[in-house]
């Protein structure tokens, strides 16, 4: 893991000092809320529905025990005892008092964390694969590149006031575990003729106008990465729309100008940017890469893991869904579900965070990850130790075996917290998960990704859910639209709307009808919901949702 040098520490300390003074001026009335707004947004502070909300960056999802314990302390000392992990691998605190925020930022700085650029029209937190450094299918760990981009983009003077926010993801395998093609820029590390470089994708995004990114470059040499990113950002900064915030994202810039024109402008800008890079970035990347050396994997007998699977059906079911093969023999990656049935997706209490910190330190080489799916990961755990990890997780309700199943729901905070939301997300997710637990059908259903957003901004990624749910306001009444066939993987697809929406008290039964329709339509137990939908299309699922006889049958 990368650790701050003297410059990093001094930079964050100075930013915190400046913001402390700005908060004091807001409290004493020297600054109005309108004057304070751009200053707080530069430091990750929002004014939500009921209180301020502080969004803390977790770059490319990487944590260690000290960081996670400090996040637990912040939850306990300054919030209501919990934090909310988001789809950008950040953590949000929903109830801080304004006067406490500077102290929260200083506490974050103690463990090399901050909230800079978690909001505003700038380059947001860079995300990556939550199995980076552990995945058997990656060609290298993508996190050093993500860290290089983080350092380059932080407080970059040219890109602090872009037309709209800008999001970057970096992966290093054919399998996309970071929803890369739904980003403004996606980078995939590839190898061509023995040389490592990047596939560059541009113009992905969700929200009001969801789009899948398009390939801008088949191969970009490694040394050209930062100047090429500068060329992209400079082009967007110059021609991106500022007259309409709904048309200001780079996906609209690409759509309105065409990929060929964007490519021509970026390639024209690139040589000028390249000329001022003298190799310092590559020296820095080499230094950063050294900080991400793999842990000293140990050799241990995995027999206890397989014995536990044979002896305990609960452990076996949990390990089937929550343990992923590792690149090192005798190891597994453990995903810790923050989606207990009926719980708020992505929430973790202070005690739960401290437990995960302890487990990461004791069993996982002090490496912990936050995922875009709002869960946590111990990426490097010896198989022999996984039964002990599972036993410890059970003590605080963290041993739910549902990763990739229908109750592993992504959900934004919705109208319970967010000032922009038009409907509730959390109670819908809780209702669906609770109903699935009552029916005891999740494992029979298999891989199914349900994603819920409480407004058109799509923070819950509903556009790429196998089943997507969008909550809207219809004349003061919550109305939930359903989309089917979305795909967040390397075969990214935007879901198709089924038809009219459903009232709040109708949405859980509607999802139940879809699931039972799938069980009756699939060709085999191995055919997933998405595969079945792609094979047979919308019509039978639409009939299950809207056909009067189907609805009457389901009600019996």
UniProtKB/TrEMBL annotation:
Keyword match Glycoprotein: no
Domain Nitrite/Sulfite reductase ferredoxin-like intervals: 52-111, 342-394
Pfam families: NIR_SIR (PF01077), NIR_SIR_ferr (PF03460)
Gene Ontology molecular function: 4 iron, 4 sulfur cluster binding; heme binding; metal ion binding; oxidoreductase activity
Domain of life: Bacteria
Keyword set, alphabetical order: 4Fe-4S, Heme, Iron, Iron-sulfur, Metal-binding, Oxidoreductase
Protein name: Sulfite reductase (NADPH) hemoprotein beta-component
Organism: Roseovarius lutimaris
């Amino acid at each position: 893991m990368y650790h701050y040098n003297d410059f990093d520490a001094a930079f964050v300390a100075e930013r915190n000092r400046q913001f402390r003074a700005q908060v004091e001026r807001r409290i004493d009335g020297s600054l109005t809320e309108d004057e304070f707004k751009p200053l707080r947004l530069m430091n990750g502070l929002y004014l939500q529905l009921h209180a301020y909300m502080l969004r803390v960056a977790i770059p490319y999802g990487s944590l260690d025990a000290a960081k996670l314990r400090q996040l637990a302390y912040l939850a306990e000392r300054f919030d209501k005892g919990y934090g909310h992990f988001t789809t950008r691998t950040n953590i949000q605190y929903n109830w801080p008092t304004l006067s406490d925020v500077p102290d929260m930022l200083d506490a974050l700085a103690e463990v090399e964390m901050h909230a800079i650029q978690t909001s505003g029209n700038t380059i947001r937190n860079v995300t990556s694969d939550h199995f980076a450094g552990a995945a058997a299918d990656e060609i290298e760990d993508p996190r050093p590149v993500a860290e290089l981009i983080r350092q380059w983009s932080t407080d970059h003077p040219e890109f602090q006031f872009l037309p709209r926010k800008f999001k970057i993801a970096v992966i290093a395998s054919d399998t996309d575990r970071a929803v890369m093609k739904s980003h403004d820029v996606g980078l995939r590390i590839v190898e061509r003729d023995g040389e490592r470089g990047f596939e560059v994708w541009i113009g992905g995004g969700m929200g009001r106008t969801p789009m899948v990114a398009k390939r801008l470059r088949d191969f970009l040499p490694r040394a050209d990465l930062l100047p090429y990113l500068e060329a992209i950002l400079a082009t967007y900064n110059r021609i991106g729309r500022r007259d309409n915030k709904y048309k200001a994202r780079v996906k609209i810039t690409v759509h309105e100008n065409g990929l060929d024109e964007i490519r021509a402008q970026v390639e024209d800008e690139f040589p000028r940017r390249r000329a001022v890079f003298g190799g310092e970035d590559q020296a820095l990347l080499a230094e950063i890469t050294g900080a991400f050396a793999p842990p000293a994997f140990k050799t241990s007998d995995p027999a206890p893991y397989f014995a536990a699977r044979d002896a305990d059906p609960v452990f076996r079911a949990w390990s089937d869904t929550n343990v992923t093969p590792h690149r090192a023999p005798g190891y597994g990656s453990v995903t810790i579900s923050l989606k207990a049935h009926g719980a708020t997706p992505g929430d973790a209490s202070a005690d739960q965070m401290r437990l995960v910190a302890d487990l990461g330190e004791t069993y996982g080489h002090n490496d912990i990850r936050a995922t875009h799916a709002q869960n946590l990961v111990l990426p490097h755990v010896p198989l022999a130790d996984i039964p002990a990890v599972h036993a410890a997780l059970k003590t605080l309700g963290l041993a739910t075996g549902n990763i990739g199943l229908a109750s592993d729901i992504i959900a934004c905070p919705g109208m319970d917290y967010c000032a922009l939301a038009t409907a509730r997300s959390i109670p819908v997710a809780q209702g669906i998960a609770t109903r699935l637990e009552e029916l005891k059908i999740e494992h029979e259903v298999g891989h199914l990704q349900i994603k819920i957003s409480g407004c058109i901004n799509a923070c819950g990624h509903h556009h790429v859910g196998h089943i997507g749910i969008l909550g809207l306001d219809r004349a003061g009444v919550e109305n939930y639209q359903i989309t089917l066939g979305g795909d967040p993987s390397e075969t990214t697809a935007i879901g198709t709307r089924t038809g009219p929406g459903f009232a709040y008290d109708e949405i859980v039964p509607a999802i139940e009808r879809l699931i039972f329709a799938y069980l009756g339509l699939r060709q085999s137990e191995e055919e997933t919901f998405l595969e079945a939908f792609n094979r047979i299309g919308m019509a039978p699922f639409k009939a299950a949702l809207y056909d009067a006889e189907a609805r009457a049958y389901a009600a019996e």
